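Request: Could I get any protein with tokenized structure?
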Amino acid sequence: MRRRKQLDAAFLDTNAKVEPSAILTGNTGVFMEVNHHHGLLDYDNSEGAGPAVEILMNSFEQLIAESESIIDKIMELS
């Protein structure tokens, strides 16, 4: 599943993946992954990593909470 949001200085793709676990024996497990990918808009190389680090610092906790919420909602379906 993918969702794209337009932010002020970036776009944010949220990707969620659910598949069988290759680690657990007996085909009893589920692997879930949530990834938040930011893409900077109008990025100037002279700024270095500053804009990316600022976005990460300002959104990290909120995006971790959203990831946990997505996984919780998927688990409720089982």
In short: Helices lie at 50-76. The beta strands are 2-6, 10-20, 30-40.
